[in-house]
Amino acid sequence: MAGRCETRTDERRRRQASFRPGRGLFAFRGGEALTIETTVVGSYPKPPAEGTTFRLRKTLHALERGDATPDDLEDARNELVREVIAEQEAAGVDIVSDGQARWDDLVTPFARNMAGFEIGGLLRWFDNNVYYRRPICTGALEWRGPSSVEAFSYAHSVASRPVKAIIPGPVTFAHLSVDEHYKDHEKFVLALASVLAQEAFELEAAGATIIQFDEPALLGAPEDLDLARRALEVVVADLGSAETVVATYFGDAKRLGTELFRLPVNGFHLDLVAGPENLELIREFPSDRRLQAGILDARNTRLEDEGVLAGQTDRLTEAVGDNLRLAPSCGLEFLPREKARAKLELLGRISGRVGA
Amino acid sequence: MMTIDLDGPGLWTTSVGSLPKPDYITKARSRFARGEIDRDELLQLERQATREWVEFQDSIGTDVIVDGEQYRGDMVAFFAEELPGLEIGGLVRSYGNRYYRKPIATSEVVRDKPITVEWWEYAQSLTEKPVKGMLTGPYTICDWSFNEHYDSRRDFVLDLAKVIRDEALDLERAGARFIQIDEPAASTRMDELDLVIEAMQVVTEPLTAHTITHICYGDFHNAYPKMLDIPVDQIDLEFANSDFSLLETFGDDAFTKYIGLGVVDVHTHALEQVDEIADGIRRSLKYLSPDKVFVDPDCGLKTRTVDEAKAKLINVKKAVDVVRAEL
Fold it and tell me: How far apart are CA B82 and CA B118, in angstroms?
């Protein structure tokens, strides 16, 4: 283990000089002092706009029948990633994602690739009519190589804007899984943290300047906040200058309180749609952290009133100044494609970047 | 609520609702979607499949029959397609490579004609046993739809409650003695259980039929015993997929309604053996009185194959017969 850490530290030293610091994103603002940065939380609808061929779905069906090859699937996925990134960029999103276009859910791509996990049955994804497969931990967890780095690298290579790398946070990963091995929540979370640390490290090595850890389950588990802090310290320990974000969504962080902001990351995503009470917390937002404010409802098709959103954005700016970044409330995959795109275009208008 | 007028000491058998579609229905539905067959041709096949399922349930001695929902796709979209005010929206993913068209409320939701009554009448015409009327509950329709019209979820749910109430009343007028109003979404948000209850009150208040609701997996331990406040005569729950662990909760707070006892897992191909099912029923009888128990699979069987579903239903019936003989 010591050897591995040494290698990673050496790697980091070697790379540090050449890497763009995460905080340097304001360079993309092109001197427009009034615009606010925008980003997405992660997922994006896979179906295309109505009336066009849904290549990914067709290819997956064809693969099942033996009428397509894994290469065909890779091509379909790559095409979708390019499309998703182009759509975000066209809408004016500053920091894009690959739309999680290759994933069925947030946790199984990682669980499948670790030693110690089996994949269980379908369970509801929080309070949505959407499902994920529950990972079952049956042995000691070990990293067996990167799970998301190739996907990140591809997105990074086709995007003209920075691509955010997104991985599950250790506490959420644990809550969404069954632990039949450690039989101790803390040990399980910390074991996940050390595997996720290697993933984060490799993502930074591959060029990620922003890494987001999704921790929606933390909202319902305030008793885990201190454990989350210790686990995230493990996760970020070997990172260089990459900006780190903890994302919470589907509710408010009232039960976590301002203690949330003591987690060892550079920024926080708060869902202001499912958790309007988060506005209270924002009043006490620390001046040295970035707020990623989820102001657009990513789970309902109704398009928000631009004036209302602009007013809300003004109030957020008053509270956190330059540290504001605007986003939808959560991943956009809950919406049909056209509706997701319309939301992003609205986000672009609100930020003052598009059509202002 | 009417007295249960079924033969025997209890432990009546039934199904939760959906049953698998035979291949010829799956194919016909795709052909219909592509415009290769007309509505009438599809309808004839759906009636054939319904008849086959009713006859099968009759043949194994099922006490309360379901029509098997051969003519329904998604349980929310089926109603949305028939209700002015709800539009069928774009594709969203539910899992893996599975997508559905999620409805959107774009104006006040109303009901301009009966939706399920003809199908119920057809199924009932095929058997002497009672056929359950099967409806999706207002809370679940709201929760699984987008809302572009209503100011609040409560307004949306309460309009849907009136729609479902009217459908239930029409089923009752047609002769339905058992009406099930499914609320699988009810256990997802504890803070809205009061809304589930309020809406169900609207639906069941004028009914005299035996009313049932099916609730899927979720935060059961937090929802119980408050769940008993949902104004229905019977709650149908999954027991098999948690190895009957819900029963322990009944030790602290007695289950006061009729219960639908899910005794086989619908998410596994594996066939539960008669002994195993009988054992689960016996364990349940430590907490429940047999004359308050309906025995069925955990949930709708539509995700299993026809043969798997039949084998599960046969073993449920055999296990019930074993335990009934011990009463």
Answer: 14
